[in-house]
Amino acid sequence: MGSFLELEHVHVARGETVVLHDINLRVEAGEQLAVLGPNGCGKSTLIKTITCECYPLAQPGTRVSILGRERWDLAELKRRLGVVSPELPGEPTLKTTGRDAVLTGFFSSSTLWPNLTVTLEMGARAEQVLELVGALALAEKRVGEMSAGEQRRIMIGRALAGSGSFLGPADSAAQNRMLLLDEPSNALDLGAQQGLRAMLRRLARQGTGILLITHHIADILPEMERVVLMREGRIVADGPKAKLLTGPVLSELFGVEVRVVERDGFFHAE
Question: How far apart are CA 76 and CA 181, in angstroms?
């Protein structure tokens, strides 16, 4: 299937401060993994580097390849990547219905502007995505009137529709099977978190690749076998979940005493 992401000796500065140090990371297309670390460790900057919102310092040996290419038209790359951030949707999106918000993913736009043409194929795909993320009942509801959990479902549907990550009943393969989630459970209550994780598990079982950025170990799905640990802008460990999600490892990572328990395939810190 090939690689989704290859980072070699990547250093990234924000302002005058270097926040990512010598990052080496390879993610296969369709792979499901989590990047875990405390707040301020550089996880969100890593996502912004993947989406080319932040650029590596020009140094010998530095290499960035996304979907097998080292050079991209940014508008095209934005359409190919299914990225979901914890921020609320912008004002234009808040005024649209759930269905229209999903459709904007095809154009990487904030709303369906008059110059954009929605094809019958796009409409059918949007309905499939709404069904997959459990949001058919939200199709006619305005995004601004939805709960935070409902908005998160719609934004994930938007990312899936636009990136081609969605595997619907009629799809035998995905054009791009990666979904990038930056702290997806932030601002969600316990019920919404549970619903979100159940939805992401369905996506994972259907073959959608997921790169999850989080500081909550409970967000890490049972389907994810690989975990990358970050601290102070560096990758400090990369390996099997069973080896890294332990009390001693996480206590060192977060700087506090952590006890880990596993229930139904999910790990929890106590």
Answer: 19
